[in-house]
Sequence to fold (131 residues):
Amino acid sequence: MTDIRRKSLEEYELLKQGYNFQPKINDYKGKFEESKEDRWNRLLNNKIEKVKQNEIIKQEKEKKDISENCTFHPEINQDFLMKNEQKLNLLSLYISILNAIAIAFYNRPVEERLHKEGMEMKLYREKVVCI
Fold:
């Protein structure tokens, strides 16, 4: 044997004689009945719940902070709101009419649609050339 290896073995024997502490190791394998997947799901669900609770607390704190510290309170004109509501109603009516026209247009036979689109493109090109 080489000197280095002999020294390391001698040191190991000296350490072994000097330290007689042997820890008691318990076998916990039988005590955990849940699988790895169940454990991950349990931990993940706990984390999700904590995040949700923190988000709720944060929102409540923000609402409280806004209600206590915000000094700006806008005055909203009711006539303005009514006019905008009427505009939105008209807009939704126009959109529904356009949707009905589009559905009617695309329910026609393909040949008829292509002919109409071709004619529209021809008229458009003639307008562009004339300008």
Observations:
- The CA atoms of residues 77 and 108 lie 47 Å apart.
- The two ends are 103 Å apart (CA to CA).
- The first helix runs from residue 3 to 18.
